[in-house]
Design goal:
The chain is of the alpha/beta class. It has a single domain, classed as Rossmann fold, CATH 3.40.50.1820. The protein contains eight helices and eight strands; from the N terminus they run E-E-E-H-E-H-H-E-H-E-H-H-E-H-E-H. The chain has an eight-stranded mixed sheet, with helices on both faces. Strand 1 and strand 2 form a beta hairpin. The longest helix is centred in the C-terminal third of the chain and has 17 residues. This is Dienelactone hydrolase.
C-alpha cells in the first residue's frame, strides 16, 4: 500500500522564461502531444506537483508548468507554505480576497495557453489550476485556445464571509464569456473538491453549477469522518498530496477522470489536419 503521494523531479524539464501582461515567470516544459498548462498549488512546484506533471507527460501531453511563486522543486513544509501564502495574500497579481475580480495573473495564463496551443497538436489546450490557482483555470477558459479547464480545489477568493464563499473566483465578464463558449464551442469544465474542505466551500461550486449547468462536471470526494478513502478532515489537494497510487483509491480515480477529460476535449479527430504527426515546437 502506498503511504505517500507520487512525486517527481525537475530533471529533464526544459526551463524558459515567458513574459506576458507585464509579468515574467519561469516555465518548465516536457512531453509531446496536446498541450496542458499545469498551474501549481501553494507553495509552488513541489515534488508532488511534479509527480502529477510527470503523469500527464506519460499520458501523452505536452505539459508546461509556470512558476509564479515558490521555489521550483522545493519540498513543502508548514513554514514554507505559510511564507508563500503571506506573500500571495498581498499580491496585486492574484488579488486573493477580491470579490467579482479580474485577476492580472489570468491575463498571463491566457497568453501562456495561446502560446502552447500554437506549438502543439490538438484542438486546443487544457489548463489545470489547483488550490490558490484553481479558479484561474476557469478564467483562462475565456480564451478560445482553452478547451479543457480543470478546477481542482479552487480556493480564491479565500472564503472569509458568505459573499466570498459564493464567489466563483472569476469576474462576471469572464464567467459570462465562459458561459457563452459553452453554447458556441461546446466548452465543458471539470471541478474537483473534498466534501469537507473549508477552503473550497460548496457554495462556490453551487454558483458555478447555476451558471454553467450540465457543462460543469463535478467530482466531490468524501472526506467526512469514517470515509472509505481514509481521508482526514483537512484533506484538500485532490490530485497531489492526497493521492495514492493504489487501485481503486478515490483520488487516483479522480486523476484518471482528469486524464480522460483532457483526451476527450483535446485529441483531434482522426481525419482532422491536426491529427497528423506534430512535434511541439520550442518557445522562441
Amino acid at each position: 500500500m502506498a503511504t505517500a503521494a507520487p512525486t517527481g523531479q525537475l530533471t529533464g524539464w526544459r526551463r524558459a522564461a515567458f513574459s506576458a501582461a507585464g509579468y515574467t515567470h519561469d516555465c518548465y516544459e516536457k512531453g509531446a502531444g496536446p498541450g496542458v498548462v499545469l498551474v501549481p498549488e501553494v507553495p509552488g512546484i513541489t515534488p508532488e506537483v511534479l509527480g502529477l506533471a510527470e503523469h500527464l507527460v506519460d499520458s501523452g501531453f505536452t505539459v508546461v508548468v509556470p512558476s509564479p511563486f515558490g521555489v521550483p522543486g522545493k519540498p513543502e513544509t508548514s513554514g514554507y507554505r505559510t511564507s508563500v501564502i503571506a506573500r500571495l495574500c498581498v499580491s496585486a497579481e492574484f488579488r486573493a480576497f477580491a470579490l467579482n475580480a479580474h485577476r492580472p495573473f489570468t491575463d498571463y495564463l491566457r497568453a501562456l495557453a495561446r502560446d502552447l496551443n500554437e506549438r502543439t497538436p490538438g484542438r486546443g489546450v487544457g489548463v489545470i489550476g489547483m488550490c490558490f490557482t484553481g479558479g484561474f483555470a476557469l478564467a483562462a477558459a475565456a480564451d478560445e485556445a482553452v478547451l479543457a479547464p480543470v478546477l481542482s480545489q479552487p480556493s480564491v477568493p479565500l472564503p472569509l464571509g458568505a459573499a466570498r464563499r459564493r464567489d466563483p473566483g472569476v469576474s462576471t465578464a469572464e464567467l459570462d464569456r465562459v458561459a457563452a463558449r459553452i453554447t458556441s464551442a461546446g466548452l465543458c469544465v471539470l471541478g474537483l473538491r473534498f466534501t469537507e474542505d473549508g477552503f473550497v466551500p460548496p457554495e462556490r461550486f453551487a454558483t458555478l453549477r447555476a451558471r454553467l449547468g450540465d457543462a460543469f462536471e463535478v467530482i466531490e470526494l468524501d472526506s467526512a469522518p469514517g470515509n472509505s478513502g481514509g481521508f482526514g478532515k483537512d484533506a484538500h489537494s485532490v490530485l497531489t498530496r492526497e493521492l495514492r497510487d493504489e487501485p481503486g483509491h478515490p483520488a487516483l480515480l479522480a486523476r484518471e477522470r482528469v486524464v480522460r477529460f483532457l483526451r476527450e476535449r483535446l485529441t483531434p479527430e482522426p481525419d482532422s489536419p491536426q491529427a497528423t504527426d506534430h512535434e511541439p515546437q520550442p518557445r522562441s
